[in-house]
């Protein structure tokens, strides 16, 4: 390929208007993020009444919350393999159908066992969406705007969680949780219909030998004057370097730095405590004497902070870079979590209540920008095309595995060491996250995916290779 072929178009795209269909692809497919956010977030409001209606203990609450994560782990693994055979678009379409089935099942559940089964089905869809939607967007988006389009997925997750908190507040009361679960059918149907109108990933098409179709897709997704033939040639070159969707390639030494980054960011996205707050904030606040109404309204505030974080993160990852976004905001995330721990050592005065609420909001904002805006972006960018399906599945499995760990231990940890001790533990994990990012995570902003793969294959440190390339 001629020198600069992949880089020049990226610079051009910063000056040339991006075709509207690129944004349509990102917007429709990111509805999977809204469903992901809604179905994982709705349990926080529903749990206040589920535990009363179904007489759930702390362990029972953890099971109802966490079973969706077991399904997500399975969905992440299966979707990656299916995407290699069926294509990214078709897998996302099936994810939408499974979302609808799971939502209806949860809404109609007559008992705890049926509700658990329905949430397991929802988990399959959540895992499939979290795995495939970022990959799909990454493979259709121009490099210059890939970051903000992929972070649109995380923004939609945040919007879904905000809608879930609002639904929990508006539908508060015994039995309202059924309507909360059933509302997810609407965006699931919209996603299914929308995906039938979208193109397949051009990179998957090239990998399958369908270069003519890939060329036609790219002509609709790239500005006029883009060297489409050069982009297809670059995709073909890197696809030929690794056996297609061969999981054994994950064991090759040259791939290890990318896996360490992808899996490390995935793990810390959960270990830093975000979903302990998202799942259990109303329960924690209610049990701490805030009252159910205050707890639910605070939950809405948390949802609003997630949306603000999503918007800010979408700007930050392209404006200042993925690595700097993490290094700038994660220290504030850890500090606010430590303040939260200190606040729970105070008495139950109004000052303590305000300190808890403000620290919660600052933590959600900073962690949402610094980690959640990057977690679904970094793996599809840094993992090579030939193993992107199974490798991204592994990273997504890591997200859900550690999310499951947090979900099944959060209330038990609070019972064992107290609220303050639990939040101090999460603060320490935020510090470890900062150290990991500083040592291991490279900058991938504005880099064509093929350039990132070349840097990965080159001798030496991946982070230094990318930093040294103009």
Brief write-up:
By secondary structure, this protein is mainly α. It has 20 helices and no strands. It holds the Pfam family Sugar_tr.
Account of the 3D structure:
With 470 residues, this protein is mainly alpha-helical. Helices cover 81% and strands 0% of the residues. It has 20 helices and no strands. α2 runs antiparallel to α6, α3 runs antiparallel to α8 and α6 crosses α18. The longest helix has 53 residues. The N terminus is likely disordered. It is a multi-pass membrane protein. It holds the Pfam family Sugar_tr. Belongs to the major facilitator superfamily. Sugar transporter (TC 2.A.1.1) family. It is found in: Cell membrane. InterPro entries: MFS_dom (IPR020846), MFS_sugar_transport-like (IPR005828), MFS_trans_sf (IPR036259), Myo-inositol_Transporter (IPR050814), Sugar/inositol_transpt (IPR003663), Sugar_transporter_CS (IPR005829).
């Amino acid at each position: 390929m001629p020198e600069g072929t992949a880089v020049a178009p990226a610079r051009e795209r910063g000056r040339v208007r991006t075709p509207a269909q690129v944004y349509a692809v990102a917007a429709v497919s990111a509805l999977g993020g809204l469903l992901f956010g809604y179905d994982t977030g709705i349990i926080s409001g529903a749990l206040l009444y589920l535990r009363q209606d179904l007489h759930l203990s702390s362990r029972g609450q953890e099971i109802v919350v966490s079973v969706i994560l077991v399904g997500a782990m399975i969905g992440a693994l299966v979707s990656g393999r299916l995407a290699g055979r069926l294509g990214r678009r078709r897998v996302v379409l099936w994810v939408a159908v499974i979302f609808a089935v799971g939502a209806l099942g949860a809404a109609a559940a007559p008992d705890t066992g049926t509700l658990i089964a329905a949430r397991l089905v929802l988990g399959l869809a959540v895992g499939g969406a979290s795995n495939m939607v970022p990959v799909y967007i990454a493979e259709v988006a121009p490099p210059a705007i890939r970051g903000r389009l992929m972070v649109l997925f995380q923004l939609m997750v945040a919007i879904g969680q905000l809608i879930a908190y609002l639904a929990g507040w508006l539908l508060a009361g015994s039995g309202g949780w059924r309507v909360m679960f059933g509302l997810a059918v609407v965006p699931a149907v919209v996603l299914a219909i929308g995906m039938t109108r979208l193109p397949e990933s051009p990179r998957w098409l090239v990998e399958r030998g369908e270069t003519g179709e890939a060329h036609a897709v790219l002509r609709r997704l790239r500005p006029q004057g883009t060297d489409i033939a050069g982009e297809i040639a670059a995709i073909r070159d890197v696809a030929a370097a690794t056996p297609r969707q061969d999981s054994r390639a994950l064991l090759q030494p040259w791939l290890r730095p990318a896996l360490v980054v992808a899996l490390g960011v995935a793990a810390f996205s959960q270990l830093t405590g975000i979903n302990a707050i998202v799942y259990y904030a109303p329960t924690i606040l209610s049990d701490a004497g805030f009252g159910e109404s205050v707890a639910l309204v605070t939950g809405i505030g948390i949802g609003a902070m997630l949306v603000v974080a999503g918007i800010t993160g979408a700007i930050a990852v392209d404006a200042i870079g993925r690595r700097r976004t993490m290094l700038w905001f994660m220290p504030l995330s850890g500090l606010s979590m430590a303040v939260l721990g200190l606040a729970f050592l105070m008495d139950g005065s109004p000052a303590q209540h305000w300190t808890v609420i403000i620290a919660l909001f600052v933590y959600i904002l900073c962690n949402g920008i610094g980690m959640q805006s990057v977690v679904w972006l970094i793996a599809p960018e840094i993992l090579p095309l030939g193993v992107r399906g199974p490798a991204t599945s592994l990273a997504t499995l890591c997200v859900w595995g550690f999310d499951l760990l947090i979900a099944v231990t959060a209330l038990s940890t609070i019972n064992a060491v107290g609220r303050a001790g639990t939040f101090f533990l999460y603060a320490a994990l935020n510090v470890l996250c900062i150290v990991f990012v500083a040592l291991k995570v490279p900058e991938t902003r504005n880099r064509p995916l093929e350039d990132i793969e070349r840097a990965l294959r080159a001798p030496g440190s991946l982070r230094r290779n990318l930093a040294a390339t103009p």
